[in-house]
Design a protein that fits this description.
single chain; alpha/beta; 12 helices; binds inosinic acid; binds magnesium ion; purine biosynthesis; Adenylosuccinate_synth_dom3; nucleotide-binding; Adenylosuccinate synthetase; Adenylosuccinate_synth_dom1
Length: 346
């Protein structure tokens, strides 16, 4: 207690998770926070390669699905916690593409996705049609994991160079007062436990799960940043209470496609009730809002709160009321520099 008061606020373990249905722009928030707070480790939790994060390398865009999106911060070790499913083919391809060999590690206990899991995911009418899964094999692989028939990362020779005990490494870093970022994937609304079952993914997606995925106990988490999109989106099937018509989203100039499946994302308006519930279950300590430039295009690229219009400020004020916690990060465009960071003012 006494010690924690003396500690610099940046010496901490922070979880970053999605507050709506995924694709809230967590990757951008992770990248910004990493460059500001200089973590020694960025470790991901979440389901597996069903997650997608788009990165631009030169002229080409790539969907990164296994490597933590914090890879853009070059000083941190990158890790994949034991709760996450690993597809060794996808993993190796991304490690080569992004050149992260030597600083990326996989927990030996991660469950493995086999080709056969992908075939079962895509071949299942229930998963591929009714639920609208990503077809990446995650559901069947998690099911085999629960049945205790699946392989683990330590059983795969191609992964031998990457194996570590992520829980041990992350907890040691926390003991040494280093900064650690735990990166969530997916979003609150598709949590197996709290989301719109059965239209959900194959695991919980809340902050507690991200901590558990990395072997970090709840008492060791200092901050939970929940990322909300000003206009939430959903891919795949399932209820979406604030969904708008395609015509309306076109009028607003919003069109998005999934990173993994390239399916068109459904677009909705701000859902204050869901934001409140999501913040509660995630144990939110502060929130990030992305896409404020869609609320008012005049805010595009703003880096200072004072540059925001009344319309945007009113939106943030309402979001804070709904969430019940301060909005400390406001993303105003796709570039990493296009962000307002109010965390120092907490
Ligand atoms: P699965 O996780 O591939 O089994 O897909 C189950 C549901 O979760 C489908 O509606 C997917 O579109 C959705 N889903 C899974 N991962 C993500 C994600 O990272 N972002 C957004 N939706 C996702
Ligand atoms: Mg995504």
């Amino acid at each position: 207690m006494y010690r924690s008061i003396l500690l610099d606020r940046t010496m901490s373990c922070t979880i970053i998770v999605g507050g709506f249905f995924g694709d809230e722009g967590k990757g951008k928030i992770v990248a910004h926070v990493a460059h500001q707070d200089r973590p020694s480790i960025i470790s991901r939790g979440g389901v597996g390669p069903n997650a997608g994060h788009t990165v631009r390398i030169g002229e080409k865009e790539y969907g990164v699905r296994m490597v933590p999106s914090g890879f853009v911060y070059p000083e941190a070790a990158l890790m994949i916690g034991s709760g996450v499913l690993v597809d060794p083919r996808v993993f190796k391809r991304e490690v080569d593409l992004l050149g992260v060999q030597g600083r990326i590690f996989v927990d030996g206990r991660c469950g493995i996705i086999e080709e056969e899991h992908i075939a079962r995911d895509r071949g299942s009418e229930h998963l591929s049609k009714k639920i609208g899964s990503t077809g990446t094999g995650c559901g069947p692989a998690n099911s085999d994991r629960v049945l205790r028939t699946s392989r683990q990362a330590k059983d795969v020779p191609e992964l031998a160079d990457y194996i570590t005990d992520v829980a041990e490494d992350v907890n040691r870093a926390i003991d040494n007062d280093e900064v650690v970022l735990l990166e969530g994937t997916q979003g609150f609304g598709i949590s197996l436990y709290f989301g719109t079952y059965p239209f959900v993914t194959s695991k919980d997606t809340s902050a507690s799960q991200i901590a558990a995925d990395n072997g970090v106990g709840p008492t060791r988490i200092d901050d939970v940043i929940v990322v909300f999109k000003a206009y939430p989106t959903r891919v795949g099937e399932g209820p979406f209470s604030t969904e708008m018509t395609m015509e309306r989203s076109h009028e607003l100039g919003i069109e998005e496609f999934g990173t993994v499946t390239h399916r068109q994302r459904r677009i909705g308006t701000w859902d204050g009730k869901m934001a409140r519930y999501s913040a509660m279950i995630n144990g939110c300590t502060q929130a990030a809002i992305t896409g404020i430039d869609r609320v008012d295009p005049a805010c595009f690229g703003a880096t200072d709160y004072g540059q925001l219009s009344k319309k945007a400020k009113d939106f943030i004020a309402q979001a804070e009321k709904d969430i019940g916690k301060p909005v400390t990060l406001i993303s105003t465009g796709p570039e990493m520099s296009q962000i307002i960071d109010l965390r120092g003012e907490l």
